[in-house]
Request: fold
Amino acid sequence: MSDYYVRRILTDYQVNQIRELLHDNNSCWESGLETFGYTEAHKKIKNNETLSGPREILNQIQDIIWSGIDNDFKFLSMVAPETSDTPITTRTVSGGGYKLHHDNPRNGDFSTTVFLSEPDTYEGGELNLKTFDGSKKIKLPAGYAVTYKSGTPHQVNPVTSGTRYVSVFWTRSMFKNPNIRKLWGDIQTVCRVLEQKHGYVELPVMENIEEVEYNPHFLLGSVLRNIERDFSICNYHE
Reply:
């Protein structure tokens, strides 16, 4: 797997929906330190704000983002998600940023940042990842997202003007073993090709058990279920 995965997940209409919610008069913002810590060291590292309510607005933003992720097949096959946390929406104004850090390993295996501001509306604010090939600065159009392994060192460069809005969430994979995860994802991709290009469906209606031997989608589905049964974090113990 590449260090990171960039793609568009939200339409312009969905981005505008979220923006209206962010600028709603009822929206409440609190210091980003609330989820990080209030020591002097914490204050020197993180300087942004987190959308804290009301619950109705948080739920609407979450639903919009999940509708985009649900249609992102490559994300699903690459990450093999077991669970994802509720997206956290942040804003970073001029002078703010988030110095180099690692995400808490308890958050999950993959981190995703969804950009909600157009790049020309703020200066600075790039997500800076420490990849295999060195530093990678990522500043994407609104509606685009980047997913990367949660152990990746990263920072948000200082915003020098304007306001940066993003939503972030973490995903726990079904599989801790990256080789098993890739195998599962590759089989999912083959199943998708069989469905889209050859007319096979995930749940075929078959008249007798002998037909199982001749339906590749069903056979591959059996392999997927066995991989999940034997290696998923819910069932597998080393």
In short: The chain has six helices and 14 strands. The first strand starts at residue 4 and ends at 8. Residues 178-198 form the longest helix (21 residues). The helical segments are 12-22, 40-45, 55-70, 73-79, 178-198, 216-231.
